[in-house]
Amino acid sequence: MNDPESCDLLILGGGLSGLTLALQVLRARPETSVIVLEKASWPPPVAAHKVGESTVELGTYYLREVLGLAEYLDAEHLPKLGLRFFFKTTPGASLSERPEFGAVGELPVPSHQLDRGMLEAELAERVQAAGGGFWSSCRVGQVDLHRDGHTTQVKTPSGRREVRSRWVVDATGRASTLKRQQKALQDSPHDSNAVWFRVAAEIDIEQWDDDPSFLARMPRGVRHLSTNHLMGDGYWVWFIPLSSGSTSVGIVSDPTRHALKSMASFDSAMQWLGEHEPQAAAALDPLRDQVQDFLALRKYSHGAERVFHPLRWALTGDAGVFLDPFYSPGTDFIALSNTYITDLVARDLAGERVRSRINEYNRTYLQMFEAWVPIYERMYETFGVGQVVALKVVWDFSTYWSFQVPAFVNSGFLDVGFMTRTRALWQGITELNRTMQERLLRWARVEPNPTSLQAAFVDPMELGFLREFQAQMVDSIPLADLEQRLAGNLAVLEAVAAEIERRLDERMHGVTASIANEAIAADIARCWFADDEVAVAGRLAGPQDSESPCPSSLP
Which CATH fold would you assign to the domain 78-113+192-298? Predict the structure, then answer.
C-alpha cells in the first residue's frame, strides 16, 4: 500500500454536492486541505445522466453568489424562466385547452437549467485551481472513524491508498457509503417513483399547439426555457432544455395510481405517455433513435437519522436526505447542508469547540426536511384536480419565497441566536403549512369535477403578494430586520391561507363567508380555473360527513 495521504477534509463523491462543498470550503478558508474522491472517470459526459438540472431561487443564489458562479452560469447554461404548469382537463386536450400557470418573462430573481456534466467538470477544475485535490476513478472502501482522525481505504487506478482526515463527508448520492456504514438510514413517509431520460434534440412545447391566442400570451421562447410540468391524476411530467442541445424528460408518479412497471422501460414509458400525455408522446416518438439514457427509480425519497455528527463526519446531497424533484429542491438542500458543513469545518480548524453547534445544526436541518414533507406526502393526489393544485402551487411558492430563501440569503440558519428567537415563527409557518396541505388534500379527494376547468392563463407575477415575496427574497438585511420581515410575511401567509379556506368552504359546503382581505381575495380569484357554471354548492361531502372518503383528521 502507498504511503498514507492526509487532509483536513475528505469528501466521498465528486458530483454536484461534493464539488460544491469543496469549492465553498476553499473559498471560505483557502488554507484548508481538501481531497475529493470520485468513482467515475473524468471528465463526465455532456448531458450526464443525473437528475437535478433545474434550480430554484435558494439553490441558484448559492451557486451564483456563495460559490461565485454567476458569470459562468450566465455564459454557459440556459436561463430558466420559472416553473410552468399545465393542469389537466379532458383526456387528450391540447396545451391551449389546459389552464397554464407560469411567468411571461424573466423573474426578478434568476434561476438556471443546468447541464450537469458541464457544470461538474467546471467545478472540478475550480476546486483544483483553488488548491484542492481531485481523484477520479476511485473506489471507497472502509471508513474508520476516530476522535483523533479518520482513516479511509481507497482503491485508485495506481493501487490502494489510505487517506487520513480530520473531517469526512459522504457525498456519494444514493449509494450513501458512509451513511450506510454508520447505519443512519431512515425511510421517508413520502412514496413516489420516477423514470427519466434524455434525448439529443431540442423539444419546444410551443410547437405542439398553433392556437393564435396561446402563442400570443408571451414572447416566443419563454415556454421553452421554463421547466414545463404536465400535471395529471397522481403524476407530473417534466421537460427541461439543456445548453448542450439535449432535452431532459421525466415522469414522476404516485405508485398507488401508476405502477412503476407501466413505465419502467423507454417503450413502456412511451406507451404510458401515449395514454396520459399524447402530445408529449407524439413529440418524442420521432426521436426514439436519439434517446441518450434511461433510468427508473422506485421510492426515491429518503431521510436520515443524522446528517452532522460530533465525531466530525457529515452527509450532504442525496447521501443525506432527498424529498422529491417537484419544485426542484435538491440543490436547495445541498446549499443548506454544505453551508452548515463549511461553517463547522472552518470553526473546528480554527480551534473552536463545535459539538453543541453540530447538534443544533443537525436538529435544524432535519426539522427543515420534516417541515417540507407535507408539501409532498400524499399530495400527488391533488395533481389531477386543477381547482386544488393551482391553489397549492400558489401556496407552496408563497411559503418558500417568504421564509426559506430570505433566511438562507441572510445567513439566518447559521445564527443560533436568531433561530432561537424566531423559533415561534418557524413553528407557525410549519403548522400553517401542514394544515393547508391537509385541507387541500381533503378537497381534492371529494371534488366531483376535477377537470371542469377553463383554459385560462395566470402569471404568478400578477399576484401582488407573490410578486412582493419574489422581489424581496434576496434582499440583504440585518437579522433584526429579517426577524421583523418574517413576522410580517407570516401575517400575509395567514391572510392567504384564510382566503384559500374561504374558497374551499364555499366550494365544499356552499358557505359564503365575508372577504377579510380584498387585495389577496382578488389575487386568489385570478387563479380560479374552475368552471363556475357547474353547480357545486352543497354537492361536496364535508370532512364531518361520515360517508366522505376522506376522514375528518388525517393520520
Answer: D-Amino Acid Oxidase; Chain A, domain 2 (3.30.9)
